[in-house]
Design a protein that fits this description.
single chain, 2 domains, 27% helix, binds calcium ion
Length: 333
């Protein structure tokens, strides 16, 4: 073998050794990279599962989502600007301070719980004003109260407030030509659910501000509450704890409504405590200690309204039909 050839052979061997070393380094790098990626995936998955568990613990699914699985979200900056622009052109109603409706002592609710005939003087359960407005996409309701909502479970004497919130009640509208009713509550929940039979509540770490929209009543359950076809929490909400207002935006399309259509509704604020079914009730447009306030007849997007008495409302042929349908399917008594 010539020296030259030996050199070439040595060179080839050296190259082969180098290549082998490079190859094994590649294998090591590959498996090292594999474990890094696997660890990252594991950490991300663990994080997601953990946050879901925490979320679930803070706000049980039962309370957080409607029957359709929808939850209420916050406004974006531009959505809030749009809401305020619409509200500036809406209709505002003022409501006096400390004008609670006193429920007669002998009224016992369907669930057997009593009502409070001496409502607590809590400003955040007392309506101060109400504004209604609409744009092409949303119906807006702004409720102002006489005081700020507490940041954690409110106590009054031995009692505690588990839920409070103003509502647009018995809202009459036409969906695809059919007369229908809806109730839209802008509620602030302080507990994981209703009080137990021995008046105990479990506070949420973070109170939950949400829309509660009940649509299409079809009957009454055994406690006399409406059975509804749909319950959703869709839309946006702002205000709540630390503020003295609640602002709700509800998509027009869930009612099949558009600008210029008419709705007829009343407004009330109900609060539930550990002891009382209704700790307090405050109604808009009521005179004296009337159980029901007058109705507001409002054309979506307009700056005016028409006041309508409850008896005129109940005499509307479509309302008589709806009422009949609900009563005929009553599981109460
Ligand atoms: Ca009031």
């Amino acid at each position: 073998m010539s020296e030259e050839l030996m050199d070439t052979t040595d060179q080839r061997e050296a190259n082969e050794i180098k290549n082998q070393a490079h190859g094994s380094r590649k294998v090591i790098l590959k498996s090292w990279g594999f474990w890094v990626i696997l660890t990252i995936i594991f950490l991300v998955l663990a994080g997601v599962i953990y946050s879901k568990l925490i979320q679930h613990q803070l706000s049980p699914a039962k309370e957080s989502a409607g029957l359709d699985g929808q939850t209420t979200r916050s406004f974006s900056k531009s959505e809030l600007d749009a809401a305020n622009a619409a509200l500036a052109k809406g209709v505002k109603f003022e409501d006096p301070q400390n004008d609670f409706y006193i429920i007669p002592k002998d009224v016992i609710e369907g669930d057997g719980r009593p009502n409070n005939n001496k409502p607590y003087p809590l400003g955040y359960t007392d309506m101060k004003s109400f504004t209604v407005a609409a744009d092409e996409s949303y119906l807006y309701f702004k409720h102002e109260l006489w005081d700020k909502f507490p940041r954690s479970l409110p106590q009054y004497g031995d009692d505690s407030i588990w839920i409070t919130g103003p509502a647009v009640d018995q809202m009459f509208f036409y969906k695809d030509g059919q007369a229908d009713l809806a109730q839209i509550i802008s509620e602030l929940g302080y507990t994981t659910g209703r009080p137990t039979a021995d008046n105990k509540v479990s506070p949420l770490k973070k109170p939950e501000l949400r829309n509660s929209i009940m649509m299409s009543p079809t009957g009454l359950d055994s406690t006399g509450d409406n059975i509804v076809k749909n319950h959703t929490r869709s839309g946006m909400i702002a205000g709540g704890v630390g503020t003295d207002y609640v602002l709700s935006a509800v998509p027009l399309n869930i009612f099949g409504l558009k600008l210029g259509d008419e709705i007829i509704f009343s407004v009330g604020d109900e609060t539930g405590s550990a002891i009382y079914h209704h700790e307090s009730v405050d109604l808009l447009l009521e005179e004296g200690n009337n159980k029901n306030g007058d109705k507001i007849r409002y054309k979506l997007g307009s700056a005016t309204y028409e006041r309508m008495s409850l008896s005129d409302f109940e005499k509307m042929p479509d309302m008589i039909e709806i009422d009949k349908r609900i009563r005929n399917n009553s599981k109460a008594n």
